[in-house]
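Lab meeting, item 3. Inverse folding demo.
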């Protein structure tokens, strides 16, 4: 097929590479403009642009429009390319109706969830944050709605109990690239039967904000842990201590403590020693800190307890909980948040 490929981040790269390797003709690559990035604010190319150039696609065939809805030059370029299909993978722009109507096979989207669940900008992150045990990828034909188009193919992927969204992204990207090639083959052969989504089963996966990272200790500890897993690498998780922001880099749900508990090993802490562990007196107040033998235990909703393993006070370096407790002389009864 003659293909126009629209995508921006690393998640989209395997699909671009796979459809080209399968013999499809990539007539144009459409991606976001170069943006300033990093502390030096140097201009950085999107991952899809870098991949396209490394594949030998001429720069003249890589378009980076700031706007696409009302852009006569961009529209003329796509119409001249006469694509059989437009592939959309994490492009980051709402596709206008004229693009939806252009190719004979439509605009085919690779979405990082098992639709109709988790429609929206952050499906992988919210699936993990909500404690799902499985996710997957779906190819669908885009329409004017938000991820509401007819589904073509789906593949499921289990989510491990400690797996983060950051770890899932490359797995879903590779799975999705193969699924897109299979989808194009099915469209060409006429063997696919599009399936309408059941809107009653739909859930929203909105774009993440910094506020999503704020820890609400009225939630049960497993919920806070799942949200931390889902919000990796950004926005993460944070609370406050003594009026300052406290970033939590690692945590776990605390279980009943044995008579002796090793000090957690994390972030350069290489030695663990058995220390007597007194059973903490749990407070009914969510957010109360239960500092016991170098461990940072926090009372959460439903009588659950969360253990913070690595923390970083604003303006300071990252520390293992045992180091932090020692350096800041934490006392049981202090409050987080």
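The presenter then showed the designed sequence:
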């Amino acid at each position: 097929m003659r293909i126009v490929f629209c995508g921006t981040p690393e998640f989209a790269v395997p699909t671009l590479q796979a459809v080209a390797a399968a013999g499809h003709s990539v007539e144009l690559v459409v991606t976001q403009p170069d943006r300033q990035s990093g502390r030096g604010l140097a201009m950085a190319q999107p991952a899809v642009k870098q991949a396209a150039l490394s594949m030998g696609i001429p720069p003249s065939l890589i378009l980076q429009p700031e706007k696409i809805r009302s852009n006569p030059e961009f529209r003329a370029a796509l119409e001249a390319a006469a694509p059989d299909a437009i592939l959309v993978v994490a492009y980051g722009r709402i596709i206008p109706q004229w693009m939806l109507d252009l190719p004979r096979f439509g605009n085919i989207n690779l979405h990082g969830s098992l639709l109709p669940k988790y429609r929206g900008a952050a499906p992988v992150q919210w699936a993990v944050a909500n404690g799902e045990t499985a996710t997957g990828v779906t190819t669908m034909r885009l329409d004017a709605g938000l991820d509401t188009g007819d589904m073509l193919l789906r593949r499921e992927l289990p989510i491990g109990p400690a797996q983060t969204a950051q770890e899932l992204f490359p797995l879903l990207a590779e799975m999705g690239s193969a699924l897109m090639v299979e989808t194009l083959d099915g469209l060409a052969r006429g063997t696919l039967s599009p399936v309408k989504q059941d809107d009653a089963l739909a859930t929203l996966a909105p774009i993440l904000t910094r506020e999503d990272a704020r820890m609400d200790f009225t939630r049960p500890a497993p919920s806070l842990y799942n949200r931390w897993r889902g919000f990796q690498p950004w926005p993460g998780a944070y609370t406050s201590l003594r009026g300052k922001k406290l970033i939590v880099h690692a945590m776990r749900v605390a279980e009943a403590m044995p008579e002796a508990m090793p000090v957690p090993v994390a972030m350069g802490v290489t030695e663990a020693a058995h220390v007597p562990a007194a059973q903490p007196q749990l407070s009914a107040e969510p957010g109360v800190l239960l500092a016991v033998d170098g461990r940072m235990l926090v009372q959460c909703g439903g009588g659950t307890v969360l253990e913070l393993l690595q923390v970083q006070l604003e303006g300071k370096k990252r520390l293992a909980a045992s180091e932090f407790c020692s350096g800041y002389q934490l006392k049981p009864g202090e409050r987080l948040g």
